[in-house]
Amino acid sequence: MDNQPQKKELGIEITKETAAGNYSNLALITHSNSEFIFDFARVLPGYPKAQVVSRIIMTPEHAKRLLLALRDNIGKYESQHGEISLGTPGMPKNTIPFGFNPNNTPEA
């Protein structure tokens, strides 16, 4: 007899709209005691506001699984393509491209 647990496979479905994806160059993250909220936004040159293109809400456990999966995938990416640089030469580290500074909120 085989006492090994059977592997269960999860089928994933994706709509055409979701498969097209949304481009994001800014992520905002907040949390409560029961959930993490990830807002993915797009910052465009010359626009004073970022447009949130997707909001994902996760339990703390799933957020930590996401962290571990990202850490693993970034490690694999960097071993194949080299280290990902976080800075742009001549640009302060807290500045997002296009001249938008998250510490300096523009007036509406």
Automatic annotation (TrEMBL):
Supply the source organism for this entry.
Candidatus Coprenecus avistercoris
Protein name as catalogued: DUF3467 domain-containing protein
What InterPro entries does the entry give? Answer: DUF3467
What's the domain of life for this entry? Bacteria
Instruction: Give the start-end ranges of region Disordered.
Output: 83-108
Query: Mind telling me which Pfam families this protein's record contains?
Result: DUF3467
